[in-house]
Design goal:
Length: 513
């Protein structure tokens, strides 16, 4: 294990996080918050800069990073960012418990959106901004940004880092040089974020929050870009005007698309986008989900306490499919009370997620396609042992190791999901009643197996809300510290897609070459 090289890059990550903390400091100064709120970000930023500089001092004898070192670095990078990123919440007193603060910021960096905050109105502006900004930071991956600073001679090392952090079964460059690839990805990411922000400014202010129009538009855009789900007013997106809800829904679907496809559009190869098998599958899933949920809301109008008009039923359907399907977690209504076919469809969307190479979480559409094709091949082999399979995705023959890797991923995913659900069922909160207030009224639910199951799926797929006690209008605050620590680790495992975190627990990974 090349510890000195790991320290060099980890130091860059820490310095980068200290620079990023300047943004909430500026927000705190703009809104004339107390000195304590300003120091809440100044102190961690200073610590990150000092420690990050010190661990870069030792000279490196070997610049190359191998795959296991790339995995370890990615996991360490996210852990360090979380440990320091949680400090502002503790120092300013918004989230005084450090475990709770780590849960909150890990939820932000992993673009999960699950929260332990019961009263969102009690948080100061700088805290609200840092929570949502963490979605934008973690959306594309902090290591992807750091790759810009890695020398071109270490192209192989850069690819190991990209594969360790980027979602999906296959990862590659869109141009020959890694630095150019990362710059293109971030320019597309930034461009879409700014475009959504500008469009949202054309809408009327949220009633009761007229003075916060620009601030809320910014939070919405950066939260949508990272497909996170932190709300900043009660009811998440419930109070937003229909225009904003439609805009947000459309951009969420766009951010769930592989960013490489946008590059093809920019270079004039738009036809290639519609030839993408994963893109067509992603679009089909979105359309089918909208049809099923909209149909269930129309066919069972009396199930939901607050009857929708046809337009409202379609708008909330589109919004929740876009939000849950891209594992964002914003809510425009209490989908916890929807008919069972709609609930079942949303749970399936929670597991699938968006496309590989996007900011969305979940198991990814490409893995679903590969798994289905791999299963079909195995059935064909049983019928005809002489059958020679040629599994293709996007017109290219898939290697056996890729197909086997997908099956291994799903095996690990569901085994870990079962383990997390079982451990959550040991929490004392089970059997207790939880009361929440939504747009449909005040309701009391019992915390049980379904709450734990959807909480585990939510954190594993980086979604945010689950159902019942941890639904769109609930929170994760009722869990014990041990369960919160477990879910914090689950969010990291889900964001890094299991292997980079598991490798830390393998003793062989720490042996020197």
């Amino acid at each position: 294990m090349n510890f000195k090289k790991l320290g060099k890059i980890l130091g860059k990550i820490m310095i980068l996080e200290s620079i990023l903390m300047v943004a909430p400091i500026i927000v705190s100064l703009i809104y004339r918050e107390s000195l304590r709120n300003v120091l809440a970000f100044v102190i961690p930023a200073a610590l990150l800069a000092i420690i990050g500089s010190l661990i870069q001092l030792p000279k490196v004898s070997r610049n190359t990073l191998y795959q296991k070192e790339g995995f370890a670095l990615v996991a360490f990078g996210w852990i360090v960012m979380t440990l320091f990123g949680a400090l502002p919440f503790v120092i300013n007193g918004d989230i005084p418990n450090y475990i709770d603060a780590c849960f909150e910021i890990m939820s932000g960096f992993t673009t999960t959106g699950a929260s332990i905050v019961d009263d969102i109105t009690a948080l100061c502006h700088s805290t609200l901004f840092w929570r949502s900004f963490s979605h934008w930071i973690g959306g594309m991956g902090i290591l992807v940004f750091v790759l810009i600073f890695i020398p071109e001679s270490n192209e192989g090392s850069s690819m190991h880092l990209l594969r360790a952090e980027s979602p999906g079964p296959q990862v590659g460059k869109i141009v020959s040089k890694m630095k150019v690839t990362t710059r293109i990805l971030y320019l597309i990411y930034l461009g879409l974020t700014i475009l959504e922000f500008v469009i949202l400014l054309f809408d009327k202010p949220i009633p009761g929050y007229e003075n916060e129009k620009v601030f809320f538009s910014a939070l919405t855009a950066i939260g949508s870009a990272g497909t996170g789900g932190f709300g900043f007013i009660p009811g998440s997106m419930e109070l937003f005007n229909p225009f904003s809800q439609y805009v947000i829904a459309i951009f969420l679907i766009l951010f769930g698309v592989n960013f490489s496809l946008y590059y093809l559009i920019l270079i004039g190869q738009a036809r290639a986008v519609f030839k993408s098998e994963e893109f067509r599958t992603y679009g089909l899933i979105v359309i089918l989900a909208i049809a099923i949920i909209f149909g269930s809301l129309v066919l069972y109008p009396n199930v939901y306490p607050q009857n929708y008009t046809i337009e409202e039923a379609f708008r909330h359907t589109l919004f929740q499919v876009a939000s849950i399907g891209t594992t964002t977690g914003f809510s425009s209504t209490d989908f916890n009370l929807w008919p069972m076919p709609a609930v079942a469809t949303l749970i399936i969307l929670m597991i699938i997620g968006g496309m590989a190479g996007s900011t969305a979480g979940g198991t990814k559409t490409s893995r679903i396609v590969i798994a289905l094709k791999g299963s079909y091949i195995n059935i064909r082999k049983l019928i005809n042992p002489r059958y020679v399979p040629k599994t293709k995705l996007e017109g290219k023959i898939m290697e056996d190791k890729t197909v086997n890797g997908v099956f291994a991923f799903f095996t690990l995913y569901f085994f870990m999901l079962i383990a997390v659900v079982f451990l959550l069922c040991l929490d004392p909160i089970n059997g207790q009643t939880v009361t929440y207030v939504s747009d449909a009224g005040t309701y009391t639910v019992k915390h049980g197996l379904f709450s734990n199951l959807t909480a585990a799926i939510s954190c594993m797929s980086n979604i945010g809300p689950g159902f019942e006690a941890v639904g769109a209008y609930g929170s994760f605050s009722g869990y014990t510290m041990l369960s919160k620590a477990l879910l914090t680790l689950t969010m990291l495992i889900g964001r890094l897609e299991i292997l980079p975190v598991l490798i830390l627990f393998n003793p062989k990974a720490w042996k020197k070459f």
